[in-house]
Amino acid sequence: MIEASTTQIWIIIVGMAIGTFLIRFSFLGLVGDRPLPAWLLRLLRYTPVAVLPAVVAPMLLGTKADTDPLRLFCAAATILVGIWTKNVLWAIITGLGLFFGLGAVIG
Amino acid sequence: MSLSPAAQQFLKGAKDGLPFHIVIWPFAAIFGAIATQAGLNVVEVMGFSILVIAGSAQLAALQLMTENAPTLIVLATALAVNLRMGMYSAAITPHLGKSSLLTRAFAAYMLYDQPYALSTIKFEKEPNLSLSEKLGYFFGAAIPIAIAWYALTLGGALLGEKIPTDIGVDFAVPVTFLALVAPMLKTPAHLASALTSGVLVLVLGFMPYGSGLLIAAAAALVVGAQVEIWMEKRKAAT
């Protein structure tokens, strides 16, 4: 159970709201329509592939992760189907379908 | 019936966002349920989902709050989880930077994982979209998912204990991100960048408060851009 006071809870909620907004607004707000240099634009084109694997890898393989062969197998299947079909929906259906399907079978 | 080009893009964004509803609905409901079970009231739970809209940071904060971590640690950790969104802001700026300050502020509020990823992928494929078309697509991807996020959080908070929270729905998050990334692994540069990111973050796992993530991501950006330059040079040489 959470023992924090109502004030503490709202400090956390409002603090997270303002902080998260400022992070998201940073470049969009400050740079606006000023042109960015070509080298920076080249870097930024890689943000999805550079950021998301770093978010995912610790969830699957990190020291605090709930690493089990079923999850790793389903994660690998998600990647392969995603590369093969180039379709986000099929990749999600494959990953979660296998996870819950096999999970139910294996128990 | 003829729709403006921006409205057409809004519908395309909403359509491309549909797969994520499979993940967002249970995720939001479970956040609402476990937050209520941990002792938050409905207003507080909705405060999180409406003011913050960042699922993984909300869950991280909730986890720390149930462990009675100090308020400052909760805030610092949750914001560290969201630091990656600074890169989202940078990545979307070349596309949406020309819009009005108010529009940019609203876009920033909704700049969470799915609209960011869908939009940057779309705008890379179709660089000739006008500003209003890009805004249409972005908000089409963002608004329906945000509404689902609010609504299902509320549902989860009201149903509370009736929702089973221990069915492995946390696995939906990595699956979503992998499903987003996999179709993008179409060049050696993208592949090298993704591998650098995933491997380096594990090597840097000892670093506090998710700071390893930022270093891994920054290195992966450089690797991607550098491999792209090499490939162009090789092509030019042959």
UniProtKB/TrEMBL annotation, chain A:
List the InterPro entries hit by this protein, alphabetically. Brnchd-chn_aa_trnsp_AzlD
What are the record keywords, sorted? Membrane, Transmembrane, Transmembrane helix
Pfam families tied to this protein:
AzlD (PF05437)
Claim: Membrane is one of the keywords in the record = yes
Q: Which residues cross the membrane?
A: 9-31, 43-61, 73-106
Record's protein name:
Branched-subunit amino acid transport protein
Automatic annotation (TrEMBL), chain B:
Ordered alphabetically, the record's keywords are: Cell membrane, Membrane, Transmembrane, Transmembrane helix, Transport
Please name the GO terms of the biological process aspect recorded for this protein, alphabetically.
L-valine transmembrane transport
Membrane-crossing ranges are 20-40, 46-65, 72-92, 137-160, 167-185, 197-225
Question: Could you identify this protein by its name?
Answer: Putative branched-subunit amino acid permease
Record membrane topology: Multi-pass membrane protein
Tell me the compartments it is located in.
Cell membrane
Top-level taxonomic group: Bacteria
Keyword Iron-sulfur on entry = no
Check the record and name the Pfam families matching this protein. AzlC
Regarding protein family, the annotation reads:
Belongs to the AzlC family.
Q: Which GO terms describe its cellular component?
A: plasma membrane
